[in-house]
Amino acid sequence: MGEQPHHWGWADLHAWQVLRPLTEAGGYLPWSEGSMSPAGLAAVANEVAYAERRTIVELGSGVSTVLLARLAGQLGGRIWAVEHHPGWAGWVRRSLARDGLGDVATVLDAPLEPHPGALGGAPWYAAAALEELPSDGIELLLVDGPPGYGDGMARSRYPALPALSGRLADGALVVLDDAQREGEGQILDAWERDEGFTFDRRAAERIAIGRRVEDG
Fold first, then answer.
1. Within 10 Å of residue 128's Cβ, how many Cβ atoms?
2. Radius of gyration of the chain from Cα atoms?
3. Is the alpha carbon torsion for 123, 127, 130, 132 positive or negative?
4. Residue 8 has what pLDDT?
């Protein structure tokens, strides 16, 4: 079994209304227990719109990928999503193609494999897949994968920042989903200690938003 489903609170219900221009801009999307909360996704969308973040990388893929691609398409941006599950990657690609977003979003197949920088031995994305991501200039890094639940997976998302921090643009934003979980809390502590970032933990949105300390 996967993680337990989220229960939407007031912030999610408000965010659902904020997101309506994106949710109604294309076909039906199946929100699931693994999807980002509406409040967290709206916070990310606000950052994309307000700060004009045009180069987006998402680790994990799903409803968030499609909605952010719809927004990026309106603003002249691009999004790359890394996905370990071939069937799910295929569904996301078909959804993007249905909405005419094939030129806006790229979904990369990336099986999980042992990673030398893992916390607790959790696997991470295959290094070969990351070669297809932008080599620099990433303005928003959204970390919503690999799955952070299941045997040995509690801190699976830690390698994201050590592996990709050198590709981030000045002033880039890093967002970690499911920040309320214990494993993600440990990841955030490690990133702040080891990578020179500081994170704002937002309980109502179940995300943490971080920037390099020198970026303010």
1. 12
2. 16
3. negative
4. 73
Band of pLDDT at residue 35, cut at 50, 70 and 90: confident
Q: Is the dihedral of CA 165, 169, 173, 178 positive or negative?
A: negative
Residue 65's Cα: distance from chain center in Å? 8
Report how far residue 87's alpha carbon sits from residue 72's, in angstroms, rounded to the nearest whole number.
Answer: 24
- State the residue for tokens 């932008």: 134
The model's pTM is: 0.92
The residue ranges of every structural domain in the chain are: 10-215
Q: What's the rounded mean pLDDT across residues 159-166? A: 96
Dig out the tokens for 215 from the structure. Answer: 């970026």
The owner of tokens 């801190």 is 155
Q: Provide mean pLDDT across the span 30-57.
A: 90
Architecture, CATH, for domain 10-215: 3-Layer(aba) Sandwich (3.40)
